[in-house]
Hints:
Blueprint: H1 10-14, E1 16-18, E2 39-40, E3 50-52, E4 64-68, E5 71-75, E6 85-93, E7 96-104, E8 109-116, E9 122-128, E10 134-141, E11 146-148, E12 151-157, E13 163-170, E14 184-186, H2 188-194, E15 201-208, E16 213-218, E17 221-227, H3 238-245, E18 249-255, E19 267-276
Parallel strand pairs: 1-14
Antiparallel strand pairs: 2-19, 3-6, 4-5, 5-19, 6-18, 7-15, 7-19, 8-9, 8-18, 9-10, 10-11, 12-13, 14-17, 15-16, 16-17
Amino acid sequence: MIESSKPKSSRRHFGKVIAGGALLAPSILAQQRESDGFESLFDGQSLRGWHVNPEKIGHGTGGRWQVEESAIVGEQDPPGSGNGGLLLSDRIFGDFDLLFEVKPDWGPCSGVFFRCTDQGEGFQMYIDYHDNGNVGHLRGEMKGAFALMPFKIFGQTSAKGELLSLETKIDPRATKWPEGVYRSICSMAAWLKAWKLNQWNTIRLRCVGRYPQVQTWINGTPICDFDGETCSLPGYERERVYRRLGPKGSIGLQVHGGKGWPKGAKCRWRNIRIKEL
């Protein structure tokens, strides 16, 4: 059963709610050639140009990363141990457009970090693909962390653990938000329509500005629009965040630490391309 209703109060707490539809022509989400200004961050064959966190962070010593079928595959090291970490781009970026495809197993808690430090602090786009998780909205992963999760996803699985369907529910924390946390977010129904179950999904993440203006899309559907200069979330302080992260950082792929990551589960990324703005 898929639940797609949203309370009338969501507009007050979240800012403008967008029902769906692409903001860009479909071609922007197709595979980009270097002549389009996009360049590959992953060569499809090796982890050249990437490194794990050099010192142990809250998620662990780095996680296990390998290339399988032209995709970067991440899992805990060893599987089920609770030891995770980040795979970080050697190059650092400030203002950029990022395109990639992602295919997580059901159960892992993952994400894509940006303006990220080697110490594992940065902004994060959730790929929390599990009950009480979210994909496409944002978090600040740092001392004084802040969560920007307006709703959560829940899965129904078969007796064999295969994911059959998803439903969404408002995150109780979001009911207490003041107006202006996001400039806009998608409706829960739009998210459910956009996400392709058990398939590769195309993500676009755009970040610009000293206090980041961040937009995300899933398969062409706008998911969120965040203004780091005006965000009203309690606990978010733009100057503190800027001092900790600075204007640039790595792109990071996450394997979350802890026992919540199912043993043997993996998250996969491919066709990772970026355009500096």
